[in-house]
Amino acid sequence: MSDDMAKGGSDLDRLFATVRACTLCAGVLPHGCRPVLRGSRTARLLIVGQAPGARVHASGIPWDDASGDRLRKWLAMDRTAFYDESRIAVVPMGLCYPGTMPKGGDYPPRPECAPLWHPPVLSALSGVRLTLLIGQYAQTRYLGDRRKATMTETVASWRDYGPAYIPLPHPSWRNTAWLNRNPWFEEELVPALRRRVAEVLEG
Question: Coiled-coil regions in this chain (predicted)?
Fold first, then answer.
């Protein structure tokens, strides 16, 4: 390893340690702070989701739940490949579990998180060639006014956002009905997603 590569790795390690020690939202997070993110300078694929759920908060492992199982199915990827930080980075919009609303479902990602931490983290992840934008929060931040009127329309227009981005719905069980109403997603987008991810990771 060159001195520059070693220095780059140590800089990223220090940045990630700083992020993981963040307590900015300690006063409003019902379950406390546990920022969850992964990655390395060699990672070529970045996954930007919403925020950790209860199970991920407990384990500290991103997408370590049923939603992650569905996402890995979409990617045709096993857990070993998915958690290879040298190839895949995971940086959610909210790094900590925001808690669950009284009527079910998690609260939105904390709004302080992405503006504070995404710029330095994504700048440090200099090897990224493709970013998966999962859900409306990630799509709003990274597509801006290129976004369509609805999440469905944005995902259906996925070809408009390449080669840097692919917008996806959240793989939560709560979106099963959406998937049933939109069969084009698994018939058209998922095969293209798998091809594009393979190109990025293997190219």
Answer: none
Q: Are 133 and 48 in contact (CB under 8 A)?
A: yes
Rounded CA gap, 201 and 66, in Å? Answer: 24
Q: What is the pLDDT of residue 103?
A: 85
CB atoms within 10 A of CB 21: 9
- The pTM score is 0.94
Q: How far apart are the first and last CA of the chain?
A: 21
Give residue limits of the domains in the chain.
27-202
DSSP 38: B
Tokens of 181: 């109403």
Angle, alpha carbons 21-26-30 (nearest 5°): 125
pLDDT digits 0-9 by tens, 94-125: 999 999 999 888 999 999 999 999 999 999 99
Q: How far is CA 130 from CA 58, 59, 78, 84, 180, in A?
A: 28, 26, 19, 16, 27
Q: pLDDT of 38-67, one tens digit each?
A: 999 999 999 999 999 999 999 999 999 999
Supply 147's token pair.
Answer: 């976004």
Fold of 27-202: Uracil-DNA Glycosylase, subunit E (3.40.470)
Contact 50, 80 (CB under 8 A): no
Bond into 163 cis (ω within 30): yes
CA distance 153 to 44: 27
